[in-house]
Amino acid sequence: MYNAFLTKFIRRIALKGTVLYEIIDNVAVLTVDNPPVNPLSDGVRTGLYESITKAESDDSVKGVVLTGNGRAFIAGADISEFGGNVEGVSLNEVFSKLEFCSKPVVAAINGIALGGGLETALCCNYRIAANSAFVGLPEVNLGLLPGGGGTQRLPRLAGPGEALKMMLTGGHVPAKKALNMGIIDDISDNVVEDSIKFVLDKAENEENHPKVRDLNDKMIEARGNDKILLEAQAMAAKSRKGQFAPGQIIKCVEAAINLDDFDEGLKKEGELFLECLLHPQREAMIHIFFGERAASKISDVPKDTPTKDIKKAGIIGSGTMGGGIAMCFANAGIPVHIIDQDEENLKRGVSVIEKNYDFMVNRGRLSAEQKDAVFGLVSSSLDYADISDCDIVIEAVYENLELKHDIFKTLDEIVKPDAILASNTSGLDIDSIAQVTKRPELIVGTHFFSPANIMRLLEVVRGEETSNETLATIMAIGKKLKKAAVVSLNAPGFIGNRMLFGYTAQANMLLLEGALPHQIDQALESFGLNMGPFRMMDLVGLDLGWRARKLGGKESPLHAKIGDELCEQNRFGQKNSKGYYNYTEGSRAPNAAPENESLYEKISQENGFNRRDISDEEIIDRCMLALINEGADILSEGVAQRAVDIDVVYINGYGFPIWRGGPMHHANAMGLDKVVEKLNKYHESTGNDVYKPSELLVKLAEKGERLGDAPNKDDRKEKLGFEMSSVANNF
Ligand code: 3H9
To answer: Mutation test of ligand 1: which of 32, 45, 71, 79 has the most ligand atoms closer than 8 Å to its C-beta?
Structure first.
């Protein structure tokens, strides 16, 4: 008896989160308390179930108001519970308890209400939201569907077309729009107070309180209208290629439309949810959700490290990168000043920024007033004195170390002494840049990806002397700019470009051995990459490496022989409409270039390759293994902190499919013993050391372990020396 009591007590205190219960004016106010964003963890579910039971059994209670503590209403189910054993009261038991509560219930949506959070609100009789609140069903981003009745209830309020759009984009809808869509009933500045008054009024004046499950009009209206589902399928095919959950969501809504019995729809949703839960894409996508949050933390920088307040930013260079970075700051509400040495360039750069904002206005993504406000934060001039008061200056000029040295010397003299000076270099030595200044602790690399206002990746390059405060500030600013920020040690190619080098080199070797560019691209695109390597090389320009080699009097490495010969024949890629593919003027669509094939034959022969048929499987294996093996070296040198940091880099900067969880997750999912076996096989068949298994992989495979955190400093493989030939020049 005592033991049973003790077990129950221990289990109880181990529960995560709680629900505060308070009576105000005969209304039970339930406040979900599970900081920072109130997910529906076991303690919250138990708390909700028990609190509703308590409110129902108290005769003095006239109604219930449900709200959240702090900045969130409820951020959804507790994502960390997926894939494990879920204890205690289930979410669906809580939802049913809420929906059939004998007293009227109002959801007082004080802040974010996402996923299971919005689903909770949809089980209440009424919903009132704060002006600043937003709602959404973002489960699709985790490889899931809204499995707490969201696929059945949201269409009943918003209509199936709008509900599908919300669920397939996973977007957040602000309160005002949610009101117009019929998702909420009202907006208030004092959401809890007003909800209490509202529920008392309803309790006194109305006998029946609406349940979303009973609202069938929009379902009946949609019956037989194929257009809604066809449009959703087209949308999913375009924006969520290769993903499993979108199709499941559409099937759920189809059931909501066609089934007369609401509970049958719920049952169908439950079955389809379970299939998502068990699908490997769910694990991969949740790995990235937590991975992005882990990557923003630096293992040896204490959590409470103070950060600098960034009130004004300066940018050196008004080209594509400089302009894009300036937009990131302006979009985050931070005034930004751009410097260029050339007046014409500056004018052009600023007008490109304005055009980008105009484009957003035309697409309805920004109002004219919002454009004025945000563009109003961008200023520019030719005079460095205008950025002397900036808290951070980011240099974004072309890759020339001497030029960067000159710029940093000037910045060091002019910009206030405690400001951070950052370089957007994609490959140059941050320590060498730091050495020309008197503030090496304030020097850091901030490698944005082009177009910087769109791409989410921010590689933060940590120099030998970069201080903790500088790093913590950059990670905080990364979050403010809505970037996925990942720290890399200062080493050639940092994380992303170093891996890309091995990958494109292998794609080029496959071309030399017999595969054609479109076959390689199609194989990798069917694996899930946004863009195959030859389309990408054509986009970037084939001439970069070729020009650098010519200038340095260097011979083409084997993997670059074909690309360099194409350049000799004036085929530079998209920039002059011919490269590995042909392009028609003004179009980026690649067309096969059969005229290149004799050149491929010739160069293969000259280099001793008998061109052969190569399977798609070999193409995918060899390109992925090159990525994985280099990634493992990057990890064992401590250049990346964790395997998942590499995954975050590859997904946000290099078009790797999120539903495969990144190259390192893919390796873990394959099994490292299998990875080593394949590496050995290709090492033997090609003789190429790219496939010599990384020591870390061999060690982990032997122990049956997975790629995880970088080893401690003492156990690390020696970091590659900073060789200024630069990884990029080898492409
Ligand atoms: C679902 O609801 C399924 C149901 O339909 C049906 C089931 C049957 N769970 O992002 P932040 C943590 S699926 C657990 O830095 P922000 C996060 O890891 C869910 N933990 O803050 C971080 O921890 P740490 C559908 C969560 O202000 C901390 O909270 N819901 C959850 O930048 C702060 O997070 C979603 O997909 C969670 N649900 O952004 C919403 N949410 O400090 C997912 C957050 O240890 N969440 N954490 O690193 C988000 O989109 C953002 O976190 C949010 C806040 C916008 C809420």
So the answer is: 79
Q: What is the mean pLDDT of residues 78-90?
A: 87
Atom 41 (ligand 1): residue with closest C-alpha? 75
Class of domain 497-638+641-715: mainly alpha
Given a cut of 50, is residue 724 above it in pLDDT?
no
Could you give the residue numbers annotated as active site?
119, 139
Domain 16-276 classified CATH 3.90.226.10? yes
16-276 and 313-491 have identical folds: no
How many CB atoms within 10 Å of residue 234?
A: 10
Q: Does residue 113 line the site of ligand 1, with CB under 6 A? A: no
Asked: is 313-491 a CATH 3.40.50.720 domain? The reply is yes
Cβ atoms 421, 439 nearer than 8 A: yes
pTM > 0.70: yes
Residues with Cβ < 8 Å from 128, sequence gap 6 or more?
Answer: 106, 107, 108, 109, 184, 185, 186, 187, 188, 191, 194, 195, 198
Structure tokens, 525 = 């695109």
Dist. CA 15 → ligand 1 center (Å)? 18
Report pLDDT for 11.
55
Nearest CA to ligand 1 atom 5: 146
Which string of b and e fits 376-397 if b means at least 16 CB within 10 Å? Answer: ebbbbeeebebbeebbbbbbbb
What residues does each domain of the chain span? Answer: 16-276, 313-491, 497-638+641-715
